[in-house]
Inverse folding.
């Protein structure tokens, strides 16, 4: 007589494997939250006073800006963005703060402005082609379209004056 073992039934094995696979798959469906850019401290930003502070004091209080303007009046920008993403989908902005510090030519603070989510531009492409202006040419027209145009009169190259006379006809 054989010794009897407590063998789990096939139903239990399948159920156990299903629970384990769901346990491994669920973390892939969790929402990913990220922060990019400047960490905004409202108290520090509110402490910047127009007419009192200058570039040095702003850098000492807020740190180096995310980026500075290159042309026109001098401006520093501090950009902060929080995003949410579900598994493999594209991240979506959940919060954004843009702080702009404006300076006069002497380097003194003229103003501090704030903006938020209203500055986000939503660009959604249509289809798989980018609309362009100009002629609509096929691939073969692009490749073979210039055959015969090289050296044609008025088209550049060297073929504009067949008798090689000077500009005055001499």
């Amino acid at each position: 007589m054989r010794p009897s073992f407590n063998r789990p039934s096939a139903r239990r094995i399948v159920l156990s494997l299903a629970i384990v696979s769901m346990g491994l798959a669920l973390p892939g469906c969790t929402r990913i939250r990220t922060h990019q850019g400047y960490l905004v401290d409202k108290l520090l930003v509110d402490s910047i006073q127009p007419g009192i502070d200058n570039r040095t004091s702003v850098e000492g209080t807020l740190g180096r800006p995310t980026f500075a303007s290159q042309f026109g009046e001098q401006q520093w920008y501090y950009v902060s963005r929080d995003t949410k993403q579900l598994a493999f989908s594209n991240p979506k902005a959940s919060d954004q703060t843009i702080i702009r510090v404006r300076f006069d030519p002497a380097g003194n603070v003229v103003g501090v402005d704030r903006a938020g989510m209203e500055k986000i531009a939503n660009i959604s492409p249509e289809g798989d082609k980018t609309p362009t202006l100009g002629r609509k040419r096929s691939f073969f027209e692009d490749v073979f379209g210039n055959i015969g145009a090289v050296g044609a009169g008025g088209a550049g190259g060297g073929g504009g004056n067949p008798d090689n006379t000077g500009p005055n006809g001499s």
Residues 10-25 form the longest helix (16 residues).
